[in-house]
Amino acid sequence: MTRLSAKTRATPTAYLFLTPFIVVFAISVVVPLGYALWISFFRKQMIGGTVFVGFGNYLRALGDTLLHDAVLRVVVFLLLQVPIMLGVAMFVALAIDSGRLAGSRIVRIGLFLPYAVPAVVAALMWGYIFGGQFGLAGQLFGSLGMPTPDFLGPNLMLMSVGNVVTWSFVGYNMLIFYAALRSIPTDIYEAAAIDGANEWHKAWFIKLPALRPALVLALIFSVIGSLQLFNEPSILGQLRPSVVTTSWTPNLYAYNLSFTGGQINYAAAVAMLLGGFTVVVAYVVQLGAMKRGRLL
Amino acid sequence: MLTIILWMLLAYFMLPLCWLAVNATKSNVDLFGTFGLAFAPNFALFDNIAQLFAFQGGIYLRWFANTILYAVVGAGGAALVAAMGGYALAKFDFHGRKAVLAIVLGATAVPGTALAVPTYMLFTQWGLINTELAVIIPALVSPFGLFLMLVYAQDAVPDSMIEAARIDGAGEARIFWTIALPLMAPGFVTVLLFQLVATWNNYFLPLIVLNQSDKFPLTVGLSLWNKLANAGGVNLAQPLYPLVITGSLLAVLPLLVAFVFLQKYWQSGIAAGGVKE
């Protein structure tokens, strides 16, 4: 019991050590969140000033077709981009872990480096590559005598945004998967080899199940990231403003509502709804992953 | 076969960076007139850099200095704040410990961008808008950092060592600085590095809380120039595309170099964070 008493004695110290985190966390997260909730119940009117409208802003948001389209767009994005990104990341992690790859160190670092590139610069580079004026893509297609697809046009813009996001985050996810694979004890492989397992057996019955926790984590972070899409479309949209409208993603919508539309109360309600939706989706993903008890 | 597939993948990942490096060496005319992955006969990199540093009274250098300030103070502060908090959560039993963990964990699921509008309004009321603090304070929060430091403190700092130090009469602050923090160094460096990337690359927050260009970090500044180049590029006295491209190259180099040289740190840090559930 001496250990417990030592800990109890130091309780004020614990609070002191925790205080800086609590303070910055409160200023940057808790207070703004509470404030957003508060102002989302009000509406600024031409006559009568700011009035309490209860769930009025939320009801308006639920019936807002611009918001519906934006949410639908990021959900489509999520369903297409996240599986591709995590699939490639997992494939690369398994390939590097198999030890059958020449120059695996260079591949590992090379694929990770885009993570260190700001989203702004990543979108700028790909935008210039895809763009019409001095675009590399156009030059390549032109040299083959083919017409260049309009990568930044209304049909392919979502795909181009997905390309930038995939480019940025495959390496990061790959490293998380790779780290999970490295933590598998080697005697499991030896036991499997004695039982006559080949490389495919090992990958299917040992490696993939071991990747599950890392995969769930990566999935949740990717879902949160997709629903918050802002940087990439806003930069690519500078190249083609007619395609990326002010309500192209929910986040762009909330941003434009408050900073160019002056509808701060409504924007707060949209942001709260989006936050709630994200939490629910992330929770469902986690629940689904745990329930199945197997690889997704 | 596997090797070929992965090297093709690597080429795809290196393509934009190679394109950036090649095109930063081109004049505006060559940018439009030559093949994107080949060097032009006229090597204009140093011209571009000179113009970049001179344009609009050298504001690019200002943006660079701002970025360094935000990243260094933000990341350094975040790592320290997370280390202290993580240590407290790992090594002390106190009322509210579980509540703190639950709230911080729950808040990570809330989209950071949902906080933008209220943060802007509150910071306006508090007089923080368009100050360095408006960018730095939110950068000090790293829930991921807090959990990583909690894990590190649990694993790397033995209880018996803390107790021995207490018996010898060392104060709690001294125990943290001279015993716990050095033992937690690998986790600390990892949090520092990842928060450095997050702050260096941050775009959304500074876009919202800053409105004067002399406070901008590189990301917001470059985006501003890109917007100008696309909107009224032909009417500008100076062609902006070479400046955006050269400016982007210089903006990504420090972190790319840091990541190549500090590999063993971030790789072990991801290993610690990656296998946890």
Could you list the spans of chain B in which at least 5 consecutive residues all have pLDDT below 50?
none
State the helicity of chain B in percent bands.
over 70%
Strand order of the largest sheet of chain A: 1-2
Task: Note the beta-strand portion of chain A.
Answer: under 5%
Largest interface: A-B, 103 and 98 residues
The residue ranges of chain A in which pLDDT falls below 50 over 5 or more consecutive positions are 1-5
Written overview of the protein:
The complex is a heterodimer of chains A (296) and B (277). Chain A is built from 13 helices and two strands. Chain A is globular and about 80 Å long. Chain A is mainly alpha-helical and 296 residues long. In chain A, a hairpin with a 3-residue loop joins strand 1 (42-45) and strand 2. In chain A, 45% of the residues are buried. Chain B is mainly alpha-helical. Chain B is built from 15 helices and no strands. Chain B starts with a helix and ends with a helix. The mean pLDDT of chain B is 88. The chains are: A mainly alpha (296), B mainly alpha (277). Chains A and B meet through helix 1, helix 2, helix 4, helix 5 and helix 6 of A and helix 1, helix 4, helix 5, helix 6 and helix 9 of B.
